[in-house]
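Hello,

Our lab assistant flagged a job as stuck in the queue for most of the afternoon. It eventually completed. Since we weren't sure the result was trustworthy after the delay, we are filing this so someone can double-check. Below is the sequence as submitted and the structure that was eventually returned. Let us know if re-running is recommended.
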Amino acid sequence: MKITHASTTLVALPQIEPLADGPTTPGSKNFVALKLGTDQGVEGIGFTFFGGSLDKALLSAVQSFGDLIIGEDPMRIEQIVGKIRASTPAGPAGIATLALSAIDIALWDIKGKVHNQPVGKLAGGHRNRINTYASGALMRHFPLDQLEKSAALLKERGFKQMKTQLALPGDTNQVKEVEHIKVIREAVGYEIDLMCDINQRWDVRQAISIGKQVDPYRLFWLEDVTAPDDYDGLARVANALDTPIACGEYLYGIAPFRQMLEARSVDIVMIDVLRAGGITQWLKIAGMAEAFNIPVVSHLAPEIHVHLVSAIPNGLTVEYMPWSFGLFREVPQPKDGQLTVPQKPGLGLEFDPKTVKFS
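-- returned structure --
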């Protein structure tokens, strides 16, 4: 089997919030969609995401990597990854890795279709269902009364886990931060797992100070409390708080995860398949985390991560984030707070031709 062609396109999707009927955020999220074709008619799909002013550069990078691997055997994924890496001295971070991820995801889709198996089973198949948490419905810039209603609605719709944010915009302080969590926790009760994302907006001192004040609200985790490469600072926060610390979504490639794990910086490792370098590298990071007896969770792309988090023994939960849903005809739907792993060959996904149009 040989790769015969690669097709890419840039897709702009509206920033909707369908999980709790929340407000639409102005602007769009832009994705690069990829199709890899073979001489045996098996086709794999992948996508990647960057955001900002470099979307066209990412599109060009994915197309360039796709053109580079024409004639290669799609089943030799590590060989293809090595060829792509050798073609650019850009290093492990940024556009090169994001572009590689789209290629790698499409190769795994092809592999699953060739073997007539879902990617989740090929990647390990540890379980057929996995917990999932609602994400994107409780954003920091939404009014607090909206968040209170949305949190209750998510619970009503069957979510047993959900995530909000702190490091509030504008003129905030510790009192407002703690009150924010208090209102949401009281809206859903303590039987719901409530996570909280900081998006790197605190320093270590703030993370410890505010973190201690929200410890009584029994958060499932505090996420990205400070700079993701401040491994010593993260370790200080993790040691100071009862609340578990999650981090990793901003790390590119596998080496930073080794450094984070060796520094004992986190209680939960969060992996983004697009920033990791694709499914191949995602699984290696998950293996490292297992060696440190640390659970793994995902960032974005639940339609891919449902396969990966379910495949490994230390998989904890999948972020159910709707940003990429418009790319596909259908995506896995949560039921009673869990996702069932798709059983179709490959990723079990099809691009929606209404939104994803290849020239």
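-- support follow-up --
The delay was a queue issue, not a problem with the job. The result is valid. The longest strand covers residues 25-38. DSSP finds twelve helices and twelve strands in the chain.
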